[in-house]
Amino acid sequence: MPQPQNIVGVVFDYDKTLSPSYMQEDAIFKRFGIEPKPFWGRTNALVADHLYESELAWMYQLLDHPEVAKLSNAELRAMGQDLKFYPGLPDALPQMRALLDNTKYREFGVQLEYYVVTSGLKELVKGSPLTPHLKAVFGCEFDERDGRLWRPKRCVSHTAKTQMLFRISKNLISMSEDVNVHMPHEQIRIPFWNMVYVGDGPTDVPCFAVVKNYGGKTIAVYDPSDDRAYQKCYELTVNEKRVDMAAEANYAPKSHLRRTLDRMILEIADKIVDSRR
Ligand SMILES: [Mg+2]
Known about the structure:
binds magnesium ion, Rossmann fold, alpha/beta, 12 helices, 7 strands
């Protein structure tokens, strides 16, 4: 079915993009007294010495912890309430959506949708205060047996994140659908040029590249207290030209990031209106 292509899609990475911390630390480590340093040390050793995929390495590390292994996916989801965000979230999400709440955009049904594509745990984001505002969340998942987390079921590595962008673009949100199916252009729900991707660094480079190469907009954000994070964003923007804009991770109104996001959303929405007319 031909699509009206009147949706602005804003896609966020999660860790260090929406939150100053890693989601496992906010939601799981604090509750069970897991020390982050040795946990990530063991994870990195599996990656370096045994060539594990890094997402599989931390997922197995979590299952090795007896308290975590007792959890169900529903309990994991409930722990998403403990996630901490950068300033301005989650209020920024409805505030930005309100930008399109006027007759000019309503006439053509222009809408804003938010997605999260993370290499962290999908269930934690699904249980967080962000979730009422999100159209879909993609991330790593555990299978469950007898009501307990059992083994990794889905691993969304940095390059697998680009697959999720195509899923969003083609509206193939369910994993039961083949993302590689050929789709004529008019059936694409959110063309990449109607998309904004917000990430925090080198792990988002494949997604930045896909969105930017197809005419979408890209923003790299950094934690202002982290000099190295700023340096990464500077490289991505100024020297490598892989992203359109770098901004401090602050989603409050009138911050550099909010001004940039607002501007990009309105620019895409205006283009949709022009092409409809
Ligand atoms: Mg990140």
